[in-house]
Design a protein that fits this description.
By secondary structure, this protein is an all-alpha fold. Helices cover 81% and strands 0% of the residues. It is built from 7 helices and no strands. The chain is globular, with a radius of gyration of 17 Å. The two termini are 29 Å apart.
Length: 153
């Protein structure tokens, strides 16, 4: 386990040695987070690949953040669905066995839970611009400090 953590730490540190600007890093991290919390489990990699292509992001930084956020993504699926139902003012159709069904038969479950997943996507679309703006501003400050510190070393 410790070798896994040290390997991932080295991968993270290598991102800062690629000569990217703090702005490029901040955008890659931000969209990695936004794509990494897409409310359909297993689809976040494709969402991040789309962001990488559209915004010319650093693929290592974006996918690294996406990978790290996997547990957070799974934890946010139901809250996104509930928020989506709230936004559309519809009664929630979320079943407590959604994760079991998705795990056992992903594509079969999509046909059963498509409406709930759609409401999760609606919430994600509504929240992403504001969340992305705030995250970018915070991450930009951090990357500027970190890159400046790395240059002194």
């Amino acid at each position: 386990m410790s070798s896994f953590i040290s390997r991932k730490t080295e991968e993270f540190k290598s991102i800062f040695k690629q000569g990217l600007t703090p702005e490029d890093l901040a955008l890659s991290f931000t969209l990695g987070i936004i794509g990494g919390i897409f409310p359909i489990p297993g689809v976040t990699t494709f969402v991040c690949l789309l962001f990488i292509y559209l915004f010319k992001l650093n693929p290592v930084a974006t996918q690294f953040v996406n990978f790290v956020l996997t547990p957070v993504d799974i934890a946010l699926v139901v809250p996104f669905m509930q928020l989506g139902y709230l936004i559309t003012q519809r009664e929630s159709q979320i079943s407590s066995d959604i994760f079991t069904n998705l795990k056992e038969d992903f594509f079969g479950s999509l046909s059963v839970y498509w409406e709930a997943l759609l409401h999760g996507i609606i919430a994600w679309i509504v929240l992403s611009p504001l969340l992305g703006f705030v995250l970018y501003k915070v991450i930009l400050v951090l990357t500027k400090k970190f890159v400046r510190t790395k240059k002194r070393e």
